[in-house]
Amino acid sequence: MMASSIAVVKRKLRQSVNSLLQNLSDDVIEKESLVVSSLVTAHPAFKSATSVCSFLSMPRELHMAPINEALFAQRKRCFVPRIRDDGELDMLEAFSMNDIAKFPTNKWHIPEPPAEDKRAEARAVDSVSLVLVPGLAFDALGNRLGRGKAVSY
Hints:
Blueprint: H1 3-22, H2 26-42, H3 44-48, E1 51-53, H4 65-73, E2 77-83, E3 89-94, H5 97-101, E4 130-131, E5 137-138, E6 144-145
Parallel strand pairs: 1-2, 1-4
Antiparallel strand pairs: 2-3, 5-6
């Protein structure tokens, strides 16, 4: 399949998935987020991780707060994204849910560490044990469909 054909298929798939998500109630999103949280926090990779790259939720997305709360409760280092002006992504350390609550939101309404803050970067840490990646949809093989914003995790 040509690259332009793939782009068309991905755009149509994104529209379809977004339509489905918009029709989910807040209660369903909350309930399913708790199910995912239980599965993630029970996974051996999560249990053994010491440093984790996580993410902060945008509206109408899986609620990451329970997973991030578990990271802090278990004293794991947590790194969250900040998108730079050039579109590149930095994974910067967050210290607590209270710290995250103070973050400003970006143009996608996602909280992110303030640009002026000096925080540890995940790439400077000896080892990141686990990376949690957001996606609009995933297939049975774990292939990811992103939101099409050209931000790579």
